[in-house]
Task: structure prediction
Amino acid sequence: MIYVISVIFFALIVGLMVTFVVQFRRRKGYQAEDSPPHNTRLEVIWTVIPTLLCVLIFYLGFKSFLNMSTPPANAYEISVTGQKWQWFFGYPNGHTASELHVPVDRPVKLVMTSEDVIHSLWIPAFRVKKDVVPGRYSKIWFQAIEPGDYPLLCTEYCGTGHSDMLSRVIVHEPGGFETWLRDADGLLDTLPPAEAGEKLYLTKGCTQCHSVDGTAGIGPTFQDMFAGSFATRDGATIVVDEDYVRESMLDPAASVIAGFEPVMPTYAGKLKDKEITMLIAYFKSISRHAPQEPASSDADSDHSDQPDLPDNPDNLDHPEDPDHSEEK
Ligand code: HEC
Ligand SMILES: [Cu+2]
Result:
């Protein structure tokens, strides 16, 4: 409708302009005549008609704007959190994922907020895009009509990792979404904790800043981290134990490892306790400092001279000591 009106006016205005330019061009032997100063009827017409058209266009646009910004009451709700530099999608059953899974042919409402700076969620294929602002909730909705895999991105320049803030929308076949949601939430429980932890490491966005091959990225590597000792920015020495790992995820700024910036986002509310435990199991499995196969005799003993107890001051020098650790 608006498109048709625009085409008609474009043709009319540009057409007349070109015709007049050609017809009334300056030619030898012709004298320019005075044109009438005023034509009330013409002026009223060319004011009233476009005004009515503008009102009509506003009405149509506003109506579809209201429609776009009011999710239907039966919309399926998914919460979205943007943080430097990844997306989190939270489902009604408590599952969180870094990719957006939705059912086909059902209105979906996204309730979005940010942990840090302004991000903007954009799903080009669905023609939806909205800013995601810290301290408030913005909403968009859509209804996917074809199962498939569509890109989802951040369109607000939000810092170094902005261009990595990519994800996908997976639109499931009818019935497939419910199955996915049930399995996704239960999947980790069926794996050994260290493997579940590895899955979490790969899917919760940690890979962006942490490697497991010994190279430091934006954050320290997880290889040999567990039970290792590190200097913090304020000159203290910490030994990585379960509590420290937990604290690092929930309150990363509490102690910052020397040589790194305090840029890690908090995972409070994004990792469940059981997931943190799985990650810890994974970190143990890739650290040479952590006992891989704890001897059964040690399991029940609480000797204070156990070498891996973090509060034993002797322990502080061992993990960094190269001679000590090459035993295998
Ligand atoms: C945006 C980058 C970033 C992301 C994403 C990130 N981290 Fe970090 N992380 C850091 C930085 C930087 C540090 C070091 C500074 C500090 O201690 O806060 C760190 C430190 C840590 C530490 C303490 C390391 C040590 O050697 O003592 C742990 C444990 C940790 N992160 C776990 C995680 C887990 C698990 C995830 C994913 C669920 C994750 N991080 C995601 C940047 C990140
Ligand atoms: Cu962003």
Q: What stands out?
A: The chain is about 30% helix and 20% strand. The longest strand covers residues 76-83.
